[in-house]
Amino acid sequence: MRALIARLGFGASRLPDGHTLPTRPPRPRAAPGPVAATAPVPDAVSPEPALPSAATLADDGERIARQAARLGFEIVDIGGFLKELDTRSADQLASLSGTLDLTDEVVRANAAVTDGITHISHAVQQALDTSQDAVGAVRASVGMSRDLATWVSSVGTRIDDISKALKWMETRTAMIEEIALQVYMLSVNAGIEATRAGDAGRGFAVIAKTVKELSDQTNATTEEIRRSVRVLGQSVHSLSEEAAEASRNALTVTQDSLGTDQKLTLITHKIHGLSEMTATIRDHSAVVRRANDNFDSTIRAFGDTVSATAKDLHGTVTRVNRLIDASETLVQLTADRSDTSGDRPFIDRVRQDAAQLGLLLDQALADGTITRASLFARDYRPIPGTDPQQYDAPFCQLTDRLFTPVQEAALTLSDKVVFCAAVNIDGFLPTHNRKFSHPQRGDPVWNAAHSRNRRLFNDRVGLKAGQNTAPFLLQVYRRDMGNGVSVMMKDVSAPIMADGRHWGGLRLAYQV
């Protein structure tokens, strides 16, 4: 650009913001006095090139201005696209970071599951060993119960034999008693006969007496035997009943032991199946662990690649922003030096209106309508329930009253004008045009396009417009209209000064 300006014969002057503006060289004046005769030009000497005319210079300036604007639009369009990619890349990095966190949690959870399965496997094996021991013990108990039942049954048989023997003894004792009774009767009769016989029967009387004594002893002995047999019979009967009860109990224990054995055997089978299942789960868990390890390394490598790409993309966005600044400087320089530029009416109007707004603010300070602290306040209080977020500031009511007539009148400058609104040095826009100052609805997309007052536009264009102190600033940008719609526009702004202090800037945006 500098080479082109030099070729066109421009000098340079410096703007307040440090940029240089080309200056037109003075037109050459004709020398006074009579015109001298023209001498013939030698063949070896080439004629000097004719200087471009003022119309040619003006046409070149216009073409440069148009090309600069077109270049600016292309760069801004590319910059907007890259910015969207940068935003998406940041979102992807955030999502990737969340994915990595989830991956770490999955890896930790899988490790915990593996440890749990290992512990469960050990516990199942212990339970299996215990159940098998229990089954063996129960089966041994069943054998002992069966042996006991068999022994008790044999005892019952023996008791029955004893009972039969006791009955036999009772029968024989009764027979002895019967014989003893007959002997007794015989001895009595013998004694009677011996008495009758007198001395001849005295020896027989001794024998009869002896037989009688023997009979008495026999009766006493048989009586004692009868009592003993009776007591023994009662004991044997009791023993028989107890043996029968013991036999029934042994049978019950045997049956219960058989049932317990069956249940323990079933439990053992189930525990064995559980052991096989835990082994299978452990094998699958190992496969999942290996897959998680592979996925973790892969996703982290992918994350490093995305992070590096995002970093490069962000750096590219930064470079494009610098390129946008350079293109805007070029657009501004060409627009400032061209009196016939299509931007000139908008530049002149925004400078005029910004100066008028400054005078209105000075008057408000002078008559005490607002204090200096309130006018330059940077306290933005969020308005509840607004989306996008709107704010209130101490100077909003004043700007609604003072700025609205000036800003609305600027809309009539051209059909190309989209909006005219002032922002302070933070990019806060207190008062917008009426068509962009509707009360918010429940639709954030609609609100973004129709409720643009009381909002912070602290993007690159908004901040530069609010903080610029040069006579004017011409920017090319994509205006976000909401719902994914953007419009390529030019934004010319001029500083607003109040009480000798920079308050912000008045923005005039128009389509090209």
* Major sheet: arrangement of strands: 5-10-9-8
List low-confidence stretches. 1-46
Alpha-carbon Rg, integer:
63 Å
Number of strands: 10
Helix proportion range? 55-70%
Shape verdict? rod-shaped
Summarize model confidence as the mean pLDDT: 75
Could you give the distance between the termini? 23 Å
Task: Classify the secondary structure makeup into a structural class.
Answer: alpha+beta
Largest sheet: 4 strands, antiparallel
- Which series of helices and strands comes N to C? HEEHHHHEEHEEHEHEEE
- Helical stretch tally: 8
Structure, described:
By secondary structure, the protein is α+β, with helices and mostly antiparallel strands. The protein is 67% helix and 11% strand. It has 8 helices and 10 strands. Strand 9 and strand 10 form a beta hairpin. Mean pLDDT is 75; it is low at 1-46.
Strand-helix topology:
Blueprint (H helix, E strand, L loop, with lengths): L1 H7 L2 E4 L5 E4 L30 H144 L4 H136 L6 H23 L5 H4 L5 E2 L8 E2 L3 H15 L6 E8 L3 E2 L14 H7 L4 E2 L3 H8 L5 E10 L2 E14 L2 E10 L2
Antiparallel strand pairs: 1-2, 3-4, 5-10, 6-7, 8-9, 9-10
Key structural traits:
single chain, 512 residues, alpha+beta, four-stranded antiparallel sheet, two-stranded antiparallel ribbon, 67% helix, rod-shaped
Task: Give a short summary of the structure.
With 512 residues, the protein is an alpha+beta fold.
